[in-house]
Design the sequence.
């Protein structure tokens, strides 16, 4: 990428320092996830009963849990699960929501059926829908992704539907249609390129909510298997020790908050840079 | 009555602020109707909002200059502060009667609200005053209309309601920002007639903002022409139409169709400048047929053509100094 | 208005029917034979045969659905495997807790969200606005159960001011038992108040740009009166319509919060039923929640229309 492209991409963030901080936190998370084995001071799975429930100290910055495992190392490894779930949910929501939204807007009859189906799905509160799907599919990481993704399939397809309807009414799209442009051409040349920035906004918000949803599922014991390090699992395991070792819950919870908050900051900054006509699809301004 | 001195309005963060209205100066005498003419973007609407104390925050702000109503400085005051300071006899009506009334309140309540602020009365006295205002703006069927919601009224009726609200403060000066642009032609004529009549009857001055020279010719006593945030020419209406001095005024008139004269319309070449793009010289120079190098370098002088006629031009028309 | 209400009610009914098909399908999508699911692992062959005939599982699927829907309409949602009692009565036991919890939460949400959102909008662009908006975004980024756990730690374990878990009915222990719901409702209120705060701020800003607000200011009305009479009144139309969504979010998030605080509400019932494989209860709760959610949205939508005088012309 050339310098100007990078500058353009960073423009929403340079204008707002707080969003820049959000972006940096997210980058740190990605680095933590990618280089977890190098960054983590200890083996996240290594048990050491001799040092169970030690408060934060020079050797164990975040303290140790009830099995004597290093909380910092587990928190760093958990970033992998957070990224996986987030990316998975975003991909699922986009891969389903974008085609449903675009096709519904371009083919009104199909759209009538599809958007009704989305309405039906929206009648289920999101966490309840996720729980119902988990019951059917069984608890696992992949199924957490599908279960949480299903809840954002609806919002994503609604937003994309609304945006595509607007784009379709734009003069240049009308012009392309009147000149006999075929639908695939219309979609790839005129619709999708214009959806990229709103999708980026939606992706950051979905990524943020996915963190909270996954944490809830893990906490209820219906998400990733308990031996996988994830912030939600760490909270679920340490829950009973909250009075004896309050710090155990502090750090994993803080990681979730930091990630979700940073994503929301980034999403907000991106949204405020959107075309005003598109901005209102995301409600209000920041 | 109303005096505006060197009014300068800027936008943007303090470090990178750009002036969009520069050193606007004019005054309106008792009972006089001044037309403020200009294209969209010339700064005429911002000027009127600033005079009214209604510049949106955050947004454009008055950087320099002074606005005086009846001798008291109201530059930094919002309408409610002016009422408290006893300088609240200034009112405004807007371009869009469709959206200028609150959709969820009844017409009567919206007029009464203004009456209560300015008369300090309520109850029967206030309602009597509301009836009186409705009569002044010729709204028939008062009882029915007062109980109506804005969407139940036509555009012309809504603009009459807006005028009634404006009259509640017994204004010395009424600011009318393109009040007829959104209305049908037949309704336009009625509203313009009403405004002129009210000015005469109540001895009320009016600042009438428009882009329509035709309306100006019928309605006003004096004209100020705005371009690129500056008043480029000001004169009594007869003199301005008879012998315009500024090249922009001339060009504007050449764009106006006149059935009596069989001639082609001449558009002004180029586009109106974006605020802040012209930092030196005359704002109209890039589009002016008579522009010379000096026009692009230095701000042209304010030239007094006659006692009541001024132009911001180094080479005004008909002065012999034209190239 | 009436034709709109009918149309909107009809659409809701259609959605409900479609949702009920999905919920009915649920029991058939769960891996394994529905009979074993319904009876549990300890059933005898006789019981299985009897239930199969009783449920009409030998009939075509459409007949099965109609029978199920018919029963649901008459209040029969099946029997709980765990409790060996009608699902409806099992759910009814959790209604008191859930309703009180939701109501208390909504009170916090309104008390926090609307006034602070109004202040943020009035001070639009100031440092106060930025702090309040930032705080709201932070509140929306915090997992509810995490907040709940720390509230328990501070107010129950350390300070001992409030109880940390359970809820004895107010009909047995008196109104003072509401104190059991203070911490859970605050926990639930945090993200939802943040949502309402942001929405209040955004819609107040939207309205304050309207021409009629400028007219009101031009009249010389004091700023606070302009907010109260002109801005807030119109912004509330939007805020009211968000209450449906907030309530739905409540029903959902209460699942986790009720688990943390060991509250005998519908949410914890769902989680426990999942762990107990008590599928008829899960199915029943989802159905009840969906009906509630759709009903609330319908009522909110219609009242929104009633509040807006422009509606009669449309």
Sequence:
């Amino acid at each position: 990428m050339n310098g100007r492209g990078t500058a353009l991409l960073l423009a929403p963030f340079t204008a707002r320092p707080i969003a820049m901080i959000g972006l940096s936190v997210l980058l740190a998370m990605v680095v933590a996830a990618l280089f977890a084995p190098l960054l983590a001071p200890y083996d996240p799975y290594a048990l050491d009963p001799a040092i169970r429930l030690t408060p934060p100290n020079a050797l164990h910055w975040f303290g140790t849990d009830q099995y004597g495992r290093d909380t910092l190392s587990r928190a760093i490894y958990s970033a992998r699960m957070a990224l996986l779930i987030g990316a998975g949910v975003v991909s699922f929501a986009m891969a389903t929501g974008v085609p449903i939204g675009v096709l519904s807007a371009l083919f009104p009859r199909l759209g009538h059926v599809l958007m009704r189906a989305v309405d039906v799905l929206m009648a289920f509160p999101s966490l309840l829908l996720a729980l119902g799907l988990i019951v059917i599919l069984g608890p696992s990481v992949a199924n957490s992704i599908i279960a949480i993704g299903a809840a954002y399939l609806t919002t994503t397809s609604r937003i994309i539907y609304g945006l595509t309807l607007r784009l379709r009414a734009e003069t240049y799209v009308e012009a392309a249609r009147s000149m006999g442009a075929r639908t695939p051409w219309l979609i790839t040349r005129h619709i999708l390129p214009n959806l990229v920035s709103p999708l980026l906004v939606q992706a950051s918000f979905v990524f943020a909510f996915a963190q909270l949803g996954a944490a809830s599922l893990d906490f209820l014991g219906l998400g990733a298997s308990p031996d996988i390090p994830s912030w939600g699992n760490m909270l679920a395991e340490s829950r009973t020790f909250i009075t004896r070792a309050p710090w155990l819950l502090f750090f994993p919870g803080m990681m979730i908050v930091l990630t979700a908050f940073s994503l929301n900051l980034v999403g907000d900054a991106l949204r405020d840079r959107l075309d005003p006509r598109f901005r209102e699809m995301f409600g209000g301004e920041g | 009555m109303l005096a505006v001195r060197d009014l300068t309005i800027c936008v943007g963060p303090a470090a990178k602020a750009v002036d969009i209205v520069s050193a606007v100066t004019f005054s309106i005498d008792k009972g006089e109707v001044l037309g403020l003419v200009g294209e969209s973007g010339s700064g005429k609407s911002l000027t009127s909002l600033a005079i009214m104390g209604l510049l949106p925050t955050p947004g454009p702000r008055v950087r320099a200059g002074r606005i005086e109503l009846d001798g008291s400085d109201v530059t930094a005051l919002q309408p409610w502060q002016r009422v408290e300071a006893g300088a609240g006899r200034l009112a405004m009506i807007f371009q869009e009667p469709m959206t200028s009334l609150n959709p969820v309140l009844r017409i009567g309540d919206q007029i009464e609200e203004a009456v209560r602020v300015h008369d300090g009365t309520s109850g029967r006295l206030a309602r009597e005053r509301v009836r009186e205002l409705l009569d002044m703006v010729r709204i028939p069927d008062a009882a029915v209309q007062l109980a109506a919601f804005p969407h139940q009224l036509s555009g012309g009726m809504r603009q009459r309601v807006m005028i009634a609200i404006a009259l509640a403060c017994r204004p010395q000066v009424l600011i009318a920002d393109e009040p007829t642009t959104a209305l049908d032609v037949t309704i336009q004529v009625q509203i313009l007639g009403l405004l002129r009549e009210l000015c005469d009857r109540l001895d009320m001055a009016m600042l009438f903002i428009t882009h329509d020279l035709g309306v100006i010719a019928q309605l006003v006593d004096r004209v100020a022409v705005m371009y690129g945030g500056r008043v480029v020419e000001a004169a009594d209406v007869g003199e301005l139409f008879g012998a315009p001095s500024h090249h922009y005024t001339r060009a504007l008139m050449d764009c106006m169709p006149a059935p009596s004269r069989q001639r082609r319309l001449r558009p002004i070449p180029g586009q109106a400048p974006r605020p802040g793009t012209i930092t030196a010289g005359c704002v109209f120079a890039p589009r002016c047929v008579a522009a010379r190098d000096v026009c692009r370098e230095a701000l042209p002088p304010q030239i007094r053509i006659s006692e009541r006629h001024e132009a911001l031009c180094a080479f005004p028309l008909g002065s012999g100094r034209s190239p | 208005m009436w034709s709109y209400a009918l149309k909107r009610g009809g659409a809701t009914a259609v959605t409900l029917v479609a949702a009920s098909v999905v919920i009915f399908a649920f029991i058939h999508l769960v891996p394994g034979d529905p009979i074993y699911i319904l009876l549990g692992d300890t059933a005898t062959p006789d019981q299985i045969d009897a239930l199969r005939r009783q449920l009409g599982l030998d009939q075509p699927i459409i007949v099965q659905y109609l029978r199920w829907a018919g029963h649901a309409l008459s209040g029969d949602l099946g029997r709980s495997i765990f409790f060996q009692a009608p699902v409806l009565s099992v759910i009814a036991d959790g209604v008191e807790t859930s309703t009180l919890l939701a109501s208390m939460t909504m009170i916090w949400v309104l008390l926090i969200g609307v006034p602070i959102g109004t202040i943020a909008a009035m001070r639009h662009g100031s440092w106060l606005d930025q702090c309040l908006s930032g705080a709201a975004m932070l509140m929306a980024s915090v997992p509810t159960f995490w907040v709940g756990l720390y509230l328990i730690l501070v107010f129950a374990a350390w300070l001992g001011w409030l109880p940390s878990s359970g809820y004895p009915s107010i009909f047995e222990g008196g109104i003072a038992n509401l104190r059991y719901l203070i911490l859970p409702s605050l926990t639930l209120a945090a993200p939802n108040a943040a949502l309402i705060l942001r929405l209040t701020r955004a819609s107040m800003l939207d309205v304050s740009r309207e021409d009629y607000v400028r007219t009101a200011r031009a009249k010389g009305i004091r700023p606070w009166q302009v907010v109260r009479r002109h801005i807030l009144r119109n912004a509330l139309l939007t805020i009211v319509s968000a209450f449906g969504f907030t309530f739905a979010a409540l029903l959902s998030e209460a699942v986790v919060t009720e688990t943390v605080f060991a509250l005998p509400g519908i949410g914890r019932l769902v989680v426990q039923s999942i762990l107990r494989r008590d599928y008829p209860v899960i199915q029943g709760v989802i159905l009840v929640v969906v009906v509630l959610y759709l009903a609330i949205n319908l009522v909110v939508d219609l009242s929104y229309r009633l509040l807006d005088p422009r509606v009669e012309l449309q």
User: Anything to note?
Assistant: The mean pLDDT of chain A is 87.
